[in-house]
Amino acid sequence: MAFDYKLCINCRACEVACKEENGILLGADKHRLWIEHPDLDAEDFKPGESVVNFMQMQCQECENAPCLEACPNEAIYRDPNGIVRLHEEKCDLTLECVKACPYNARYIDHKKRITDKCIFCADTRLARGEKTTACQASCPAKVRYFGDLDDPRSEISIILQEREYFQLKTEKGTKPRLYYLK
Ligand code: SF4
Ligand code: SF4
Fold first, then answer.
1. Whose CA is nearest to atom 1 of ligand 1?
2. Short-list 43, 91, 44, CA closest to 67
3. Among residues of the chain, what percentage have pLDDT more than 90?
4. How many domains is the chain built from?
5. Helix (H, G, I), strand (E, B), or coil: what is residue 57?
6. What is the CATH number of the domain that holds 142?
7. Which of 56, 62, 115 to mutate to test the pocket of ligand 1 (most atoms within 8 A of CB)?
8. What is the pLDDT, as a whole number, of residue 179?
9. CB 114 within 8 A of CB 129
10. Are 79 and 122 in contact (CB under 8 A)?
11. What would the pLDDT profile of 60-101 be if each residue is shown by its tens digit?
C-alpha cells in the first residue's frame, strides 16, 4: 500500500470502514489502522518538506518482520501474497510480537484471544476476488493506493515509479513495505 499522505483530511472514513469490515467496535483505538498527528522521528522528514498534518498508520508488512521473528510459537507467517499473517490456533498471547513491533501495529483481540493487525482485507475482500481494501475504497481523498507490487502495470507500481516516497523507521532494519509519497 502507498499513501499520498498529504491529501489526508482526517475524516477517518478509512477507520470506520475497516472496523465495519472486521467487526471491531467503533471506539477501539489503534485497531488495524489509525490516523496519527505525527510525532515521527525527525529523520523521516527532509528540510523543506511541507508540514504534515495527518499520517495513516497500520502494519507496515515488514520484509524483515520483528513480530514474526519474536513469536516463540511460530504462529506468525507470511502468506503467498506477502502479507504477514497469524495461525490463530497457535497464538497463546505471550505478546512477544506486540512488544517486538516497532510500529505498535498489533493489538489484542480479547474476544478471539489472539493478537491481530491489518491484513489488507485478505479474508474478506481479497478472498472474494476484489481488488481494493475497505480503507482504500472508502477514502474520499484518494490517499490510498493498493495493489500488486509484482505487477509493473499495477497502479501502485506505476505511482512508485513516478513519485518519490519514504518509509517509516527504516533504521530498524525492518524493510517496511508501505510507502509514503512525497
Ligand atoms: Fe509485524 Fe509490526 Fe512489521 Fe506489521 S509492522 S509486519 S506487525 S513488525
Ligand atoms: Fe485520510 Fe482517506 Fe482515511 Fe479520510 S479516509 S482519514 S482522507 S486516509
1. 67
2. 91
3. 87
4. 1
5. strand
6. 3.30.70.20
7. 62
8. 97
9. no
10. yes
11. 999 999 999 999 999 999 999 999 999 999 999 999 999 999
Domain residue limits at 38 = 2-181
What's the confidence (pLDDT) of residue 53? 76
Task: Find cell 507496515 and name the residue.
Answer: 60
| pLDDT at residue 37, as a whole number | 81
Q: Where are the alpha helices (DSSP H) in 113-172?
A: 134-138, 155-162
C-alpha cell at 77: 507467517
DSSP state of 78: E
Which cell is 113 given? 484471544
Ligand 1 in reach of 120 Cβ (< 6 A): no
Residue nearest to atom 3 of ligand 1 (CA): 62
DSSP code of residue 168:
S
Report the pLDDT value the prediction gives residue 27, as an integer from 0 to 100.
Answer: 86
pLDDT at 21 > cutoff 60: yes
Q: Which residue has the cell 478509512?
A: 14
Mean pLDDT of 90-119: 96
> What pTM does this model have?
0.90
Cα(28) to centroid(ligand 1), Å: 19
Encoded amino acid at 160, one letter: L
Residue 134 CB–ligand 2 contact under 6 Å:
no
CA 105 distance to own-chain centroid:
8
| CB of 143 shorter than 6 A to ligand 2 | yes
Cβ atoms of 165 and 44 within 8 Å: the answer is no
